[in-house]
Amino acid sequence: MDLSQSIHRHHGTRVLLSLVAGSLGGLLFFWLSLPLPWMLGSMLLVSVAAVCGMPCQRSVRLRKGTIAVMGLLLGSYFSADTLSQFGLWFLAALLVSAYVVTMTIFSLSTFRRVGLMDLPTAYFSSMPGGLAPMTIAGEEAGGDGQLIPIAHVIRIFCVVSFVPIYLALVPGVELAPVSLTLSEVFVLPPWKDWFIWGLCALVGFFGARAIRMPFGEILGPMILCATVYIFEVVTVTLPPFVTIAAQIVIGTSIGTQFAQLRKRHVLRTVITSMGTTIVMLAGALIVAELMAPLLGMDPLSLLLALVPGGLVEMGLIAVALDADTAFISAMHTWRIILIAVSAPLLFGLVGRRLSWARRHCPKSADKPDSRSG
C-alpha cells in the first residue's frame, strides 16, 4: 500500500511539474506575442524539457476531461446556419477522403523504404490521424508499439508547429494573441449555461463510452453541445480561461511524450515522420488552393480541414484564427472516423493476401518484410 501511494505521489509530482512548465511556456509565448501562445508555448517548452531529461508526465484522466471540454468548445461553434452547409460539406468530405488515401499510400511507401519498418508498423504509422486507435490496432497486428505512437506524435507536433508559422509568414494571417483584461479572461456566464455545459460534457462523455462510439470522449460532448447551440438553448461562448486551460493541458500532453526520443533507435522514425508530414502539409496546401475556389470555400478553412493534425489541436487553431470551426471540426471528425474504421479492416485484407502469397510463393512474399524497424 505504501509503495502504491509513493508511486501515485511520484506520478502526481511529475504531472504537476509538467503543467507548471507548460503554463510558463504559454505565458512566455503570450508575453512575446507569438502565435497560439498557450498551446505552442506549453508544447515546445515541455517537449524540450522532456528530451533533456526532465521528469515530465501527463495525466490521462486530466487529458480525457480536457478533451470533453474541447468537445464543448468545438460544439459551441455550430449554429442553425450550419445545417444549410451540409451539402457543401459532403463534397469537402469526399475531397478529404481522397487526400487521406493518397497521403497514406505515399507515407506507407516512405516508412517502408526510408524508415525500414516492417509492414504492420509502417502501415499504422502512415495513417494521417488516430494516434491512440492506430497504436492499439498496430500492436494487435504485430507492429512496434513504441515506433507507431512516436510517428504520430511527430506528425502532430510538426503540424501544430508549422501551420501557424506558415500562416503568419506567407498569407500574413494575424496570429498574435488577443489582449484580454483579467475581468475578460475570468468572465462568468449565468449558472444556467454552466449547468447545460456540464450536462452535455457528462452525458456526452459517458453516454458515448457506454455505446462505444469511436472517439466518443470528444464527439459525444461535441454533438450534444452543437445541438443546444443549433436550437439556441445556449448562445454565449465558453469563457476565455476555459480555452486557455485546455490549450495548456493539450500542449503539455503532447510535449511530455517526447521523453521517449532520448533513445537512439527511434531517430530514423522521427526523421521519416517529419519528412512525410512536410509532404502531407504541402499536399494539403496545394489541394486547398486549387479546390477552394471550385467549392466556393475559404482556402484557410479548407487548408485547416485537410492538414493531418488532431481534431483537438486543429480545433484550437481554428478557434484562434476565427476560421470556420464547425466545418473544420466536422471534416476532422470524418477523417478520424474514416481512418479508425477502415484502417484495421483494410490491413486485415492485406494480411490475408500476404498469408495466401506466403503459402503459394514464400520467397516473393517474405522479401518485403525482411526490413524491420
Summed up:
This protein has 373 residues and is an all-alpha fold. It has helices spanning 2-31, 37-51, 60-75, 86-113, 119-125, 131-140, 147-169, 182-185, 191-210, 216-230, 240-256, 267-295, 299-306, 311-321, 325-360, 362-366.
Model description:
There is one protein chain. By secondary structure, this protein is mainly alpha-helical. The chain has a single domain (2-370), classed as Na+/H+ antiporter like fold, CATH 1.20.1530. Helix content is 73%, strand content 0%. Helix 3 (60-75) packs across helix 14 (311-321), helix 4 packs antiparallel against helix 5 (119-125) and helix 5 (119-125) runs antiparallel to helix 6 (131-140). The radius of gyration is 21 Å and the shape is globular.
CATH class: Mainly Alpha
Strand fraction equals under 5%
State the total count of DSSP E strands. 0
Mean pLDDT: 80
What CATH architecture do you see?
Answer: Up-down Bundle
User: How would you classify the helix and strand content by structural class?
Assistant: mainly alpha
Radius of gyration: 21 Å
Shape: globular
Termini gap: 40 Å
Topology as H/E string? HHHHHHHHHHHHHHHH
Structural domains: how many: 1
Amount of helix: over 70%
Low-pLDDT parts are: 363-373
CATH topology: Na+/H+ antiporter like fold
Main β-sheet description? none
Number of helices: 16
